[in-house]
Amino acid sequence: MKIPLIAPAAIAMLMATSADDRHFSYASKTKYAQIDFTWSTEAAAVPALVRRFQAELRKAQVKTPQCGKEESAIRIKTGGEAIACATTVKIATMGQSPRLLSLSRENWAFTGGAHGNGATTGLLWDRAQGREISFASLFLSTNSLSQLRGPYCRALDAERNKRRGVDYQKSTITEFDTCPKFSDLALIPSDSAHDGKFDQVHLIAAPYLAGSYAEGEYDIALPVTRQLIAAMKPEYRASFEAQRQ
Length: 245
Known about the structure:
Layout: H1 8-14, E1 24-29, E2 33-39, H2 41-44, H3 47-77, E3 85-96, E4 100-110, E5 117-126, E6 131-133, H4 149-164, E7 186-190, E8 200-205, E9 218-223, H5 226-230, H6 234-237
Parallel strand pairs: 2-3
Antiparallel strand pairs: 1-2, 3-4, 4-5, 5-6, 7-8, 8-9
């Protein structure tokens, strides 16, 4: 069965229609493909993001069943059974201020291997500029993020020890026991107090980056400090607050 492509007008019909709840949710399951795609109310309020996510969904509607058909053909030839490839995308709001909207994107895919794989990335939208910006671009200097380095590495090691237990032996893969580069992580500001200001930064390492696949994703949340805010460009400081201790 072929999954019909969804035109923008039809996508709009799938969105919740109440004034205060316009999140989007799409789910489809066929012989060759399973697709789940959602984005939050806040993301749905930004037309440029909606167009971007619609395009990604339409691509998944083509690529995912194509993957399932190709993988099934290979398996059937060797006496196996047909399988369905899968694509799951969940775009959630981590917080927002009048200037900034912070989203997390959980992406998972199964393409016929031993298991599926996925990662979380961040999307920081600057309403004043009408475009996505990087977390690093909030700061006056590229060195400003170095103040997070020590706290992050210590918190990561503590979480690793918790998950691995006392019998853990160092891996032959050095990345599993060292502190990842910030350029390899998703850095996502969040508003844990739900008061319109960001007071945390999540530093997220995908599976295989800071540990084995079995250990899963490492999500370390660090508090925003006054020193971190002081290192930001003036136009962004009002979007953040030091976390209450």
